[in-house]
Amino acid sequence: MTAVSTTAARKPVRWGRLALHLGCLAALLVMLYPLAWLLATSLKPADEVIASLNLLPGHLEWSNYTTAFDGVNDVSIWRLLSNSLLIAGGAVLGNVISCSLAAYAFARLRFRFRGPLFAFMIATIMLPHHAVLIPQYIIFNQLGLVNTYWPLILPKFLATEAFFVFLIVQFMRGLPRELEEAARIDGCGPFRSFFLVILPLTRPALITTAIFTFIWTWNDFFTQLIYLFDPDKFTLTLALRSFVDASSQSSFGPMFAMSVIALLPIVLFFLAFQRFLVEGMASSGLKG
């Protein structure tokens, strides 16, 4: 009697797990459907992109990728890709260096007005980007840096991303202070303690910062549209708009093909560092 009741009690558990797995699978399919639609549409002829609601194309139009690789406005896709990588790489380098230095000052050093300054920095997270865009544009225009990559890279070296400073601060506060004290006994000053002791231990938070910076900068359209005018300085994000504006008839097939190409670096970058992303988020006080 006991064995029968035990078996009956286990059945709802199995059905519950099955329902949970089916629900997760359904949610996964819903989230992956836009990606599948993008891949399928990039291979559709122009008349099927708008007229047909079928997911799979009736005819594979590989010429969409040929047109996408030719680039836009006499600028090859390799030039567009190198421009995007230059801006995204510079932004990643700037955020990792400047935000880690600012975070080290707030998390490990003692100085006057540290608390109010940290609170003021955190408050800037709520400041809309568009509120500071016009003053920044006026400054860069007076410096003669408009239509160059400097307005997109230089602010990253000034620790302007308060979110990443806060993330790294939370991580550094969890590191034992005995490590710095031992380094100080060995004759290390603040900078040597930072570079030799703290910075290597902060790798998960730094990689998290690098991943988010790369994704946000790569996908940025509005800021790049404001500062870049010449087609040979365009990124892949700006080039996608040219498929719609270059002629009276929109080239949706090549545009979606270039969208797939633009998506690949983000996916590869994320897959390469996703393990550190989870570790960094879990160790920085930002757990859900």
From TrEMBL:
<feature type="transmembrane region" description="Helical">
    <location>
        <begin position="85"/>
        <end position="106"/>
    </location>
</feature>
<keyword id="KW-0812">Transmembrane</keyword>
<keyword id="KW-1003">Cell membrane</keyword>
<protein>
    <submittedName>
        <fullName>Carbohydrate ABC transporter permease</fullName>
    </submittedName>
</protein>
<feature type="transmembrane region" description="Helical">
    <location>
        <begin position="118"/>
        <end position="140"/>
    </location>
</feature>
<comment type="similarity">
    <text>Belongs to the binding-protein-dependent transport system permease family.</text>
</comment>
<dbReference type="Pfam" id="PF00528">
    <property type="entry name" value="BPD_transp_1"/>
</dbReference>
<keyword id="KW-0813">Transport</keyword>
<feature type="transmembrane region" description="Helical">
    <location>
        <begin position="18"/>
        <end position="40"/>
    </location>
</feature>
<feature type="transmembrane region" description="Helical">
    <location>
        <begin position="193"/>
        <end position="218"/>
    </location>
</feature>
<feature type="transmembrane region" description="Helical">
    <location>
        <begin position="252"/>
        <end position="273"/>
    </location>
</feature>
<feature type="transmembrane region" description="Helical">
    <location>
        <begin position="152"/>
        <end position="172"/>
    </location>
</feature>
<keyword id="KW-0472">Membrane</keyword>
<dbReference type="InterPro" id="IPR035906">
    <property type="entry name" value="MetI-like_sf"/>
</dbReference>
<keyword id="KW-1133">Transmembrane helix</keyword>
<feature type="domain" description="ABC transmembrane type-1">
    <location>
        <begin position="81"/>
        <end position="273"/>
    </location>
</feature>
<dbReference type="InterPro" id="IPR000515">
    <property type="entry name" value="MetI-like"/>
</dbReference>
